[in-house]
Amino acid sequence: MAQKPSIPKGTRDFSPIEMAKRNYIFNTIKEVFLLYGFQQIETPAMENLSTLMGKYGEEGDKLLFKMLNSGDYLKNAPAEMLEQHDYIHLIPKISEKGLRYDLTVPFARYVVMHRNDIQFPFKRYQIQPVWRADRPQKGRYREFYQCDADVVGSDSLMNEIELVGMIDEVFKRFGINVIIKINNRKVLSGIAEVIGAPDKIVDITVAIDKIDKIGLENVNAELLEKGLSQDAVDALQPLLTLSGSNEEKLATLSTLLASSEVGMKGVEELRYVLSNSEAQQPKGVVELDVSLARGLNYYTGTIIEVKAKDVAIGSITGGGRYDNLTGVFGMPGTSGVGISFGADRIYDVLNTLELYPKDTLASTKVLFVNFGEKEGAQSLQYVMKLRANGIPAEIYPDSTKMKKQMSYANDKNVAYVAMVGETEMANGTIALKCMETGEQENLTINEVISKLK
Amino acid sequence: MAQKPSIPKGTRDFSPIEMAKRNYIFNTIKEVFLLYGFQQIETPAMENLSTLMGKYGEEGDKLLFKMLNSGDYLKNAPAEMLEQHDYIHLIPKISEKGLRYDLTVPFARYVVMHRNDIQFPFKRYQIQPVWRADRPQKGRYREFYQCDADVVGSDSLMNEIELVGMIDEVFKRFGINVIIKINNRKVLSGIAEVIGAPDKIVDITVAIDKIDKIGLENVNAELLEKGLSQDAVDALQPLLTLSGSNEEKLATLSTLLASSEVGMKGVEELRYVLSNSEAQQPKGVVELDVSLARGLNYYTGTIIEVKAKDVAIGSITGGGRYDNLTGVFGMPGTSGVGISFGADRIYDVLNTLELYPKDTLASTKVLFVNFGEKEGAQSLQYVMKLRANGIPAEIYPDSTKMKKQMSYANDKNVAYVAMVGETEMANGTIALKCMETGEQENLTINEVISKLK
Q1: Rounded Cα gap, residues A135 and A132, in angstroms
Q2: Continuous segment of H or E residues that includes residue A423
Q3: A93 touches chain B (CB under 8 A)
Q4: Which candidate in A72, B80, B260, B349 could, as Cys together with B190 as Cys, close a disulfide (CB 3.0–4.6 Å)?
Q5: Is-contact A383 A430, C-beta < 8 A?
Q6: Between chains, do A83 and B85 touch, taking CB under 8 Å as contact?
């Protein structure tokens, strides 16, 4: 019956120390969400496949984890599909539910289902795991947490400013230096328009996005290859080499996009968001980056991406505005804007820079060594008094070797070890040893309480 | 493309108010766990089916949610199984992973996998959802949270006392009056032994468990039906009608079980756990209940069950000692003892008795009404100052009708509404309205901060 256990590839166990670090991350983000008036919701891990399918592209559909129906799941399976091993078309016959792939689609579904109970604008946050049947690799998991905050039902750009403020506050608290990159989908549309290639917006933005990686020349070559005229590529150059302050970039954009209504709208939005964000005196750098082209399938206005300055890792937070979140579920015209913190990458950054506050990893404050039944009973009384005063305390449950008990205290990163032996029993005292300094004092229980409270 | 969205039956969305209540429950339990020196771990939602199957009985295997393999899941499916619709034997061919059914088996798997990194005794807690393909009904869900605390690697009965103390502390904090029922599996074994029916222990305990529901006579009839002799049933009577104080019950048990070694061991353990638990002066009633026979498949010593005194609902917490948690994964001889809080039932009890502290449902402290761009910009400055002082504050993002903004404030249960109109702009003040009393004051931002901090 014995078997060597393992866990599915791409998934992880989290040990107490890892959990302490993760809780620090989640709690910090939560505190900021609450400070800004966002409210938490949760949705089920499983959604109907009809809710999930078709929302993430063909590739996304494949990456959904699908649940086998309960009982005789083959009862609606057509014989010929089975015969022909038609595993693709068989899926809806044998599976009705899947694990959520992100928090956005479940949120859209939530908004539509509960529209009559929701007071808009609805500022919600959600911190839950999502699952993707991706090929696991370093830093990419099949189960990972997303931390999303969105506002739906308000077109105001003040929401964008608030989100930038929230991003800045979170990373200030973490002590991570960041660049908050901002762009606007309308500017990208404007660019495609003024260079006379409005149908090539995706190709253009994909290429722009690669400048840092492959360089200007290769980008130009790729654009020509994609069917852009030499004139169009020439017209694009000032945009590809845009530099200077945000103000300077905006000025250049204003000139270049003057003939495009949508482009100028984008410039105006960018100007508002950038200037008001800067007015908040953020700790991070807020930077207009016209090469930022993430989420082009769904973002319709502001696009946001955050990078850590001191660690070479991809985007650690991202977001943007989408104009029709809930349309696919029959509720058109609801605009939303949101951000998503990448908890796993933030975890990696905090580990690399060793930025965890010391008390993050603290656990029990005092461990009482167990010297036997009588001493143990007395120690348990003390432990209860400490707890009644809000001090995390415990007693080693077995009266085993001192060495084993001390090694337990060490491993658990306990701050103090308390010893109540024969002498202390007689004196009514406790020998309290500080694990960091090694100092030891003889104190009454009340003295211990005032010392540690 | 539009579709009316729904969620899988037996699953739930949690709104901001529901989340506030649930967070209150989880946070209260967590605080007590930490106070007692328990450390958090998390395990993946998905486990290999080889880890889960065979651990919950035949019925449990059926109730596991199983994930369809990625890609061509039919590639290892034997043609004849497909032809014969042999959906049972086909499962392992097309599915390798399932959702966890409880937190105990994943914990056992965790302990075995990480045995070299764990310092025993290991006091872990885990608060995560579990999934069961049960028929949904009132109060029974397909996705629900378990809150487990276990100690593994220590035989000491001090752990039992600590767990009882922890249970009592949790329900004291909730304000729920409870009866903490305690039994011992060894006593049940002893009973079966002394009435000469050691092979009938399951039948006997199942019957004993029904006394409250069907009455003594029917229980006796059932026992005879199950093949117990009339002598055995007669011998059982004093146990079935056991009454009096814990001390009196223990005395009766001692007499009745005198000839059974295992029975007397059970009595001794019970006496220790009961007397030491009572010595802690619990708020709840700690009661020996020999009819308590839960989890007989795995519990080997102490059995614990908690009922709410003032609400007719099943067990709201349960637990016990199991001697061989990890044996099935090739690591025999590791004793454990643990408890599991039923968050969903506690939620129902707290709702029924309306026991939530008032500030549980508080959200944003101050909402600034938005009177337009200029006033909005000034208000945003104030909002930022409040947040810098740790006061949750927000501004309504759109300068829309006052009525809509007030209705938003009401719905969100905001404590204060702040108004900065033309007059206030000129005076450098804020009109602060308390939503509960309706009182309104004109204050400077610093006065608002000291008032609300």
Answers
A1: 9
A2: helix A422-427
A3: no
A4: B260
A5: no
A6: no
Cβ distance A227 to A145 under 8 Å? no
DSSP string, A347-359: HHHHHHHT---GG
Q: Dump strand ranges (E) for A205-284.
A: none
Any B CB within 8 A of A76 CB: no
Q: Do the beta carbons of residue B47 and residue A13 sit within 8 Å?
A: no
CB contact (8 A) between residue A121 and residue B73: no
Give me the half-sphere count of Cα atoms (radius 13 Å) on the Cβ side of residue A315. 18
Q: Select from B13, B30, B447, B348 the least CA-distant residue to A107.
A: B13
Question: Which whole-number Å values give the CA distances from B378 to A169, B155, B385, B395, B420, in the listed order?
Answer: 20, 64, 11, 10, 8
Stretch B106-123: mean pLDDT, rounded?
A: 96
| A398·B124 Cβ contact <8 A | no
pTM: 0.94
With contacts defined as CB-CB under 8 Å, which chain B residues touch A155?
398
Q: Is residue B355 classed exposed, middle or buried when 0-12, 13-18 and 19+ CB atoms within 10 A define those classes? A: middle
Res A1: pLDDT: 45
* Look-up of token digits 């908890």: A343
Chain A residue closest in CA terms to B79: A83
The widest CA-to-CA distance across chain A, in whole angstroms, is 95
Mean pLDDT of chain B: 93
The shortest CB-CB distance from B19 to any of A40, A74, A392 is to A40
ipTM of the complex: 0.94
Tokens of A102: 């992100």
Cα distance from A54 to chain B (closest Cα, Å)?
A: 10
Q: Which of A303, A300, A298, A301 is nearest to A287 (CA)?
A: A303
Chain B residues with beta carbon closer than 8 angstroms to that of A391: 35
- A11-66 tens-digit pLDDT: 999 999 999 999 999 999 999 999 999 999 999 999 999 999 998 888 899 999 99
Beta strands in B185-333 (DSSP E): 285-288, 302-308, 317-322
- A329·B43 Cβ contact <8 A: no
pLDDT in tens, B304-335: 999 999 999 889 999 999 988 898 899 998 99
The reply to whether A422 touches chain B by the CB within 8 Å rule is no
Among A residues 368-387, those touching chain B with beta carbons less than 8 Å apart: 370, 376-377, 380, 384, 387
**Beta-carbon separation of B131 and A62 below 8 A:** no
